[in-house]
Amino acid sequence: MNESAKTSNWTDVDDAPELGPEFFQSAKQMVAGKPVSPTDFDAAKKRMGRPPAPLKRPTLNMRVDADVLEALKASGKGWQTRVNTILRQEVLERR
């Protein structure tokens, strides 16, 4: 933390001054810490967020026993992918 932040007179974040239109008009648009043109900024905004999946999976809502769901979630991150794998193996084996 820098010295000015340590010696601040603010006791609450609500005490921060309002940012008026002048602030935003003079603000520089940045991408990855570097100033960019408005066109480049708009293009970068379109790329922000989670990248699209190569294959869109449909959403499935289903009911399962509470203990089954608890065990699946307890198996850790990626449990939904594991459920998909289990269902795929069961369905494809019966064809």
- How far do the termini sit from each other? 62 Å
N to C succession of SSEs:
HHEEHHH
The amount of beta strand, in percent, is under 5%
- The largest sheet has its strands arranged as 1-2
Share of helical residues = 40-55%
Secondary structure tally, helices: 5
Mean pLDDT: 85
CA-based shape = elongated
The major sheet is characterized as: 2 strands, antiparallel
Spatial extent as radius of gyration: 25 Å
Number of β-strand runs = 2
Structural class: mainly alpha
Which consecutive residue ranges, at least 5 long each, have pLDDT under 50? none
What does this structure look like?
With 95 residues, the protein is mainly alpha-helical. The protein has helices at 3-6, 21-26, 38-47, 66-74, 79-93, and strands spanning 30-31, 34-35. It has a two-stranded antiparallel ribbon. β1 (30-31) and β2 (34-35) form a beta hairpin. The relative contact order is 0.05.
